[in-house]
Specification:
Number of helices: 7
Structural class: alpha/beta
Number of domains: 1
Strand order of the largest sheet: 3-2-1-4-5
CATH class: Alpha Beta
Helix content: 40-55%
Distance between the termini: 30 Å
Shape: globular
CATH topology: Rossmann fold
Order of helices and strands: EHHHEHEHHEHE
Oligomer: single chain
Number of strands: 5
Length: 160
């Protein structure tokens, strides 16, 4: 992934993720989700350049096919997600993918996020807290950033 160069990893979860992909969702919720995506794009798309990183990995639920990835792709040289991890695994093994198990895929994504040069997440996620804890305990501790601490990101961002 990323030619073994360092990456930024984003743990992309919110209560609105499902709403954004639900065709029956109310307009106000969709606009709130779009606003969150716009804030993330503005802030996170500057990180790879600031740290001389070429790639970003977005950890998001498999049910959200492209989600924020489609918004980041035009702004960042290479954006990866679980779709890419599954594709890479399928190239390496002709056997049915173990990644059909969402729990297994989540463990792989945790490893990716733990090893990333920078990890970005919301404050209200147990999954992200586990990753942050492991990153902080590592002898090669790397920076972790909350979404709300990104430049120009509103404080309420973790609530949507």
């Amino acid at each position: 992934m990323c030619g073994n160069r360092p990456i930024v990893a984003v743990h992309w979860r919110s209560k609105l993720d499902e709403i954004c992909t639900d065709k029956s969702a109310v307009i106000s919720s969709k606009s709130a989700c779009q606003k969150k995506e716009e804030f993330l794009l503005k802030s996170a798309s500057t990180l790879p350049k600031a740290y001389d990183l070429q790639c970003i990995y977005v950890s998001q639920p498999p049910s959200i096919k492209r989600g924020i990835v489609k918004y980041l792709s035009p702004r960042i040289p290479k954006v990866y997600s679980s779709v890419d991890v599954i594709a890479m695994a399928n190239k390496l093994s002709p056997k049915p993918s173990v990644f059909s198990d969402d729990y297994f895929l989540s463990l792989v994504e945790q490893e990716i996020c733990e090893g990333a040069a920078i990890f970005i997440s919301g404050k209200n996620s147990a999954w992200a807290s586990f990753v942050r804890h492991n990153r902080e305990k590592s002898p090669n501790a790397k920076p972790s950033v909350y979404l709300s601490d990104l430049p120009d990101m509103p404080n309420y961002i973790d609530l949507i």
